[in-house]
TrEMBL record:
InterPro entries in UniProt: AAA+_ATPase (IPR003593), ABC_SmlMolc_Importer (IPR050093), ABC_transporter-like_ATP-bd (IPR003439), ABC_transporter-like_CS (IPR017871), Mo/tungstate-bd_C_term_dom (IPR008995), P-loop_NTPase (IPR027417), Transp-assoc_OB_typ2 (IPR013611)
Domain ABC transporter: 4-234
Family (UniProt): Belongs to the ABC transporter superfamily.
UniProt keyword terms in alphabetical order: ATP-binding, Nucleotide-binding, Transport
SUPFAM superfamilies: MOP-like, P-loop containing nucleoside triphosphate hydrolases
Keyword DNA-binding among record annotations: no
Molecular-function GO term, any one: ATP binding
This protein's name: ABC transporter ATP-binding protein
The keyword Ribonucleoprotein appears for this protein: no
Chain coiled-coil ranges: none
Length: 348
């Protein structure tokens, strides 16, 4: 187990900053996700930790030791990629044994450790198969065993579940969590899937355009996203400019709703579609008209026009709302998010 620290890490390709002043700590034994849209610099950051890319600026520390100038294979890291990258002409056992052989471990000990880690990843008895004789999920388990068998200081994973179908992906997510818990290995996990990051991580680093936008625990980031970009990326459906702010409140469509903010203007508000109540006192709420509905099973999402708000609101509710019906709606107590405007809001 080891602690990882990045300070002011940047990677420039010519004029282009693929990663810019990236700083964060990964506590020993914890699981941290780098979350962000395609091209935001997640892989670039991971590759600098691995040693495949040399930083343009900044430092990488493992347990307080600066590792910028240490060769990748001497950094003692376990790495798992999206495409498994197993050796096709080696059996499962040989794949898993590879790192131990390179390190000159005794054959009997290699066998013992390879079996132990294949058991850990849920693949006992598959030692003599070749990668092509395994499913994608099984191959990814082999890749995980191969990375863990050397008992690395840090495990680095770049979208390891992306090639799996939805069901297997969800299953492997639990497996990965279990394996990380059992080994206690410090892990840095790259993903663009918010749900994956939320369920797996102790902490999440959200990136955009090569920069760190926010760092926090999943619950903090989910419940209190601080910026429009983060809120949007985490699936907050309604983000818009309010009429204005008053002490302890925000004015939307001419009505006041309680909201905590520091009195600074130029903010946006965010409202999850599931955080809007329907019915109640017409004077205290907003009048809206249902324009569209999308059936999702037990909960449906409605697009509702609200005079005074430039964009229609998305509302998710179990209540059946026919198109054209007039409703009264209001945010649930405490549900109005106040967001820094770090993103363009598309016109309605
Ligand atoms: N060797 C390179 N030369 C020039 N530009 C590069 C190089 N490697 C990466 N980039 C650019 O840097 C940016 C960040 O790339 P990176 O691979 O880190 O993104 P990512 O967040 O991992 O995205 P994805 O989710 O699509 O994997 C991209 O715009 C990419 O095109
Ligand atoms: Mg990537």
């Amino acid at each position: 187990m080891a602690e990882v620290k990045l300070t002011g890490l940047s990677k420039h390709y010519g004029d282009f900053a693929a990663a810019s002043n990236v700083s964060f700590d990964v506590e020993s034994g914890s699981f941290l996700s780098l979350l962000g849209p395609s091209g935001c610099g997640k892989t670039t950051t991971l590759r600098m930790i691995i040693g495949f890319e040399q930083p343009t600026a900044g430092d990488i520390f493992i347990d307080g030791e600066r590792i910028n100038d240490i060769k990748p294979w001497l950094r003692d890291l376990g790495v798992v990629f999206q495409n498994y990258a197993l050796f096709p002409y080696m059996t499962v056992a040989e794949n898993v044994a590879f790192g131990l052989k390179q390190r000159g471990v005794e054959p009997a000990e290699i066998k013992r450790r390879a079996s132990k880690f294949l058991e850990l990843v849920g693949l006992p008895g598959k030692e003599d198969r070749f990668p092509r004789q395994l499913s994608g999920g099984q191959q990814q388990r082999v890749a995980l065993a191969r990375a863990l068998v050397i008992e690395p200081r840090v495990l680095l994973l770049d979208e390891p579940l992306s090639n799996l179908d939805a069901k297997l992906r969800a299953e492997m997510r639990f497996e990965l969590k279990r394996i990380q818990n059992e080994t206690g290995v410090t892990s840095v996990f790259v993903t663009h899937d918010q749900e994956e990051a939320l369920t797996l991580s102790d902490r999440i680093v959200v990136m955009n355009h090569g920069e760190v936008v926010t760092v926090g625990k999943p619950k903090e980031i989910w419940e209190r996203p601080t910026s429009a970009f983060v809120a949007d990326f985490l699936g907050v459906e309604n983000i818009f400019a309010p009429d204005g702010f008053e002490p302890g409140a925000v004015v939307i469509g001419g009505k006041r709703f309680a909201a905590e903010h520091d009195g600074q203007g130029n903010r946006l508000v965010g409202l999850r579609s599931t955080d809007i109540e329907i019915g109640g006192d017409a004077d205290a709420g907003l009048a809206g008209r249902v324009q569209q509905t999308s059936y999702r099973g037990s909960i449906n999402t409605y697009v509702v026009d609200v005079p005074g708000i430039a964009r229609p609101l998305y509302i998710s509710t179990a209540t059946d709302l026919p198109i054209g019906s007039n409703i009264v709606l209001k945010p649930r107590d405490g549900a109005v998010l106040i967001l820094d405007p770090d993103m363009e809001i598309a016109a309605a």
